[in-house]
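Changelog note: in this version the structure field was regenerated for every chain. One regenerated record is shown below for reference.
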Amino acid sequence: MPIDSSRRILVTGGAGMIGSAIVWKLNQLGFDHVLIADRLDLSEKWRNLVPLRFLDYVDGEDLLRTLPQLGEVDTIFHLGACSATTEKDSAFLMRNNFEYTKTLAHWALSKGARFVYASSAATYGAREDDFREDLPLDSLRPLNMYGYSKHLFDQYALRAGFAERVVGLKYFNVFGPNEDHKGDMRSVVHKAFHQIRTTGKLELFRSHRPDFEDGCQQRDFLYVKDAVAMSIHLADTPEAGGLFNLGSGLAHTWLDLGRAIFAALDLEPNIEFIPMPEHLRGKYQYRTCATIDKLRASGYSPAITPLADSVADYIRNYLNHDRRLGDESL
């Protein structure tokens, strides 16, 4: 990103994992004129903000009301949302994830600001292959209300005629520092780190399909540092528009991930398979893998960090020391 310290950037969800990582990376690139909006709660999410440099903080509940007072904003990273796939309050998700995004997008477009927002790989629903951004949106069937709330805005942007003037980011399985506050939505890496420290073993779901052996279910795991590099690249590529998959482009098994976690802890693997809960079996995807051809075609050329290296960096430099992004020198 060309350095222009006068640029003002708004990051919603700026205390969350990806949002705070965006601010961290912007700081590294020389950007301090950052506005953060979020909703701090009873969690320790506020700790993600401590090492960061930013102009001001606005409570997410107040942001839309105070937009006229924000002044000039060049770029908006809209990452603030309820990201719990288990959230059952549909009305809340519609207000928070759909209506809020509509209002902010129209404001950004009216001001000529670059609008980059978090869609989700959850919009693809139960499919296990052919994850392409050019699939007809009406053909997608999200499995939960969270995924549908994200899908609904993707559809709205298309119908309203501005889908190619904004950028929607379909994050796949992002993991890394600054996710401590996420509860059950934390990555398996974070959960496994504490489980192994406590019990000496890692529990993974047994496969309930004959075409997949235990632990051979696959996911596209993406380190948060790669995710933010991709996000910032797309924000600063004016010709890039529409939906983009953000993933590694590789499918790894849960066994691959488990072995990388044990290696980062300098321990021999000790993995136990447990039955998958009945209520998950009908909705469980056995394989996800992002197609990232469109991202590469936009000019994003950096190599994506190998899974073992990502896990090692996360565990050895952050989890082992209870550090956040920006605490690296401590």
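Spot check on this record: The chain is about 35% helix and 15% strand. The chain has a mean pLDDT of 94.
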